[in-house]
Specification:
It contains 10 helices and 6 strands, in the order H-E-H-H-E-H-H-E-H-E-H-H-E-H-E-H. The relative contact order is 0.18.
Length: about 260
């Protein structure tokens, strides 16, 4: 172990000790795979695969900390405008990762449920089959939850829910005056166990949330943490720093409530 590793370990323990309040649900915008690839002199495909390796590590860190819900912004509806080659490479990567879920002992030992958000009508048939297989295999699990946002757009998600409710009104199964926030949330996530977002993390030195989970995040006024490292370079201390931001927010709220 190097001196740097020792210092890193000590800093991680200090950060952990500073976080008295853990978020139940963290949503992560994994940004910077392509920028990382350019800095390393590797292809975009290799950058995405480096990002996938970081995702696996981060999920282990989160589980060790006791965070039950993680939502990952994997692929937006806008990402379909990228080059055909890059989109195909990403689709292949997603399919491979989802297929690994079926055999991954960590998934079954820790009873982790995998759920996918997004417009499934936009997914290729082979990827959709992998999505459905991973969800089916883990459907009865409930200790931890990994939500993958694929072909996802926050506004698109709400629009689709509104259209479904409008169809129910037209069909006479629902009256317009009965529609309320609880009903919309049920329409959005009725088949999935996804609680409000407590913390959004975005890497790659971008300071925007890109319309990610607007109903569960913005509506819940969650904490937000932006950090400089591109996603493949994201470390455990970066996750702990993000959690510290959430912890500070909760402490501030409690202080206001108590009149301190």
């Amino acid at each position: 172990m190097t001196v740097r590793d020792m210092i890193y370990g000590i800093y991680a323990r200090i950060l952990t000790s500073q976080c008295q309040h853990l978020p139940n649900h963290i949503a992560i915008i994994q940004d910077g795979n392509r920028r990382y690839a350019r800095t390393q002199g590797i292809s975009a495909a290799e950058g995405h695969r480096a990002g996938a390796d970081t995702t696996e590590k981060m999920l282990d860190w989160a589980r060790e900390l006791g965070i039950r819900h993680i939502t990952l912004y994997c692929f937006s509806t806008e990402n379909f405008t990228r080059s055909r080659e890059e989109v195909d490479e990403l689709i292949t990567l997603f399919r491979e990762e989802l297929d690994r879920v079926v055999e991954d002992p960590r998934i079954h030992t820790n009873r982790i449920r995998v759920q996918v958000l997004g417009d499934r009508s936009l997914l290729p048939t082979d990827l959709l089959a992998s999505v459905e297989r991973a969800e089916k295999v883990t459907r009865e699990y409930g200790n931890y939850f990994i939500n993958l946002a694929l072909a996802y757009g926050g506004r698109n998600e709400i629009v689709r829910a509104a259209k479904d409710l409008l169809g129910q009104v037209k069909g006479g199964r629902l009256r317009a005056e009965e529609i309320d926030p609880a009903m919309i949330e049920h329409q959005l996530y009725s088949e999935k166990q996804i609680p409000p977002v407590d913390l959004i993390v975005r890497t790659g030195n971008e300071h925007r949330t890109s319309n990610f989970l607007p109903w569960l995040a913005n509506g819940n006024e969650c904490a937000v943490y932006f950090c400089a490292p591109n996603w493949p370079a994201f470390r455990k201390v970066d996750l702990l720093r993000a959690i510290r931001v959430y912890d500070q927010r909760i402490r501030l709220q409690k202080g206001k409530t108590s009149g301190v």
